[in-house]
Write a structure and sequence with these properties.
alpha/beta; five-stranded mixed β-sheet; 13 helices; 39% helix
């Protein structure tokens, strides 16, 4: 990132979220005694509007707005695979008034892919993982396969001639497929696109054989009969795709390729503020409407503690480092 990018004037892109009912959950404690929050809170989203990260950021911001009694204003700041927004948060005052819609991409993948001016493990204070997003393997219906075993057998017969799309070199969609190909002992040609939407369109058009993406990328298109979802790369089946088995169930024990989204703050943010937000988000996942909103995105509600957030980062980092090594991807 050059100095010009770091010096871009902050321009909030979206209107503030309405207050609604000022329901103060967990008002006790030092943060409340000090009057935090006394003004609107800013939440940076590292991608453009419209994706899963953006949607989860807005759901979280709306819930926190009601809980904290102050607007939590979402600001989309895309660029450098999310590193621009992440660095802006890291360099913000650790006073509880700047938050980050954290995703696995910035917190555990980017450090393996490129040089960063910050260390996610040290420079962020985790608040809560709001939802996990196990990736799913979608294939073109033209292949005529109905299971992961059939897909692997076909790929072996084709001897590396089949291809797959991704949202770009080094993206989670690229790295997840690299992991699967390695575990299955097969080869395919990688066709990177400029984002998930064109990668999905290539699959729908039958231009590529497969795509390993977010459930929300695939689910809207399943009724059309052009693609099939063969496997879930999480530890359990998805509520939105109950009939689709996991990769592990289909002969690859321990296989996991999950992303997640949550809320983080700059390191040094007062512990009372972190705990108050984490407690509020913990209540969110007990709310049927909030859970349903997450499940409609193809994600699994989590609403973790700060400690569980940090543990997930530690557990996921070696998985994605291995994927980067296997894929040979680099963003530097």
């Amino acid at each position: 990132m050059n100095s010009t990018e770091r010096g871009v004037v902050r321009r909030p892109l979206l209107a503030s979220i309405g207050l609604g009912l000022a329901v103060l959950l967990g008002a006790a404690g030092p943060a409340a005694a000090q009057g935090w929050p006394e003004r609107p809170v800013r939440m940076l989203v590292p991608f453009a509007p419209g994706g899963v990260t953006d949607a989860i950021g807005r759901l979280s911001a709306e819930w926190l707005s009601r809980s904290l009694g102050q607007p939590v204003v979402v600001e989309n700041r895309s660029g450098a695979n999310g590193a621009i927004a992440a660095e802006a948060v890291v360099r913000s005052a650790p006073d509880g008034y700047t938050l980050f819609t954290a995703s696995a991409s910035q917190m555990v993948m980017l450090p393996a892919l490129m040089h960063l001016n910050f260390d996610p493990a040290k420079d962020f204070a985790p608040v809560s993982i709001v939802a996990s997003n196990p990736m799913v393997l979608g294939v073109s219906a033209k292949l005529g396969v109905n299971s992961l075993a059939e897909f692997v057998a076909l790929a072996k017969r084709q001897g590396g001639k089949l291809d797959y799309s991704s949202a770009g070199t080094g993206s989670s969609t690229h790295l997840a497929m690299a992991l699967l190909l390695s575990r299955a002992g097969i080869e395919m040609q990688h066709i990177p696109y400029r984002g998930g939407a064109p990668a999905v369109q290539a699959l729908l058009a039958g231009e590529v054989a497969a795509y390993f993406g977010n459930p929300s990328d695939m689910i809207p298109h399943l009724d059309g009969g052009r693609i099939k979802v063969l496997a879930i790369a999480g530890t359990e089946r998805l509520a939105s795709l109950p009939g689709v088995p996991t990769v592990a169930e289909q002969g690859y024990p321990g296989f996991r390729a999950e992303t997640w989204n949550g809320v983080a703050a700059p390191a040094g943010t007062p512990e009372a503020a972190i705990r108050r937000m984490a407690g509020s988000l913990g209540e969110a996942c007990k709310n049927a409407d909030f859970r349903a909103s997450l499940e409609r995105l193809g994600t699994t509600p989590v609403c973790s503690t700060p400690e569980a957030f940090r543990a997930s980062m530690a557990a996921d980092a070696p998985i994605w480092r291995e994927a980067v090594r296997i894929s040979g991807a680099s963003l530097d």
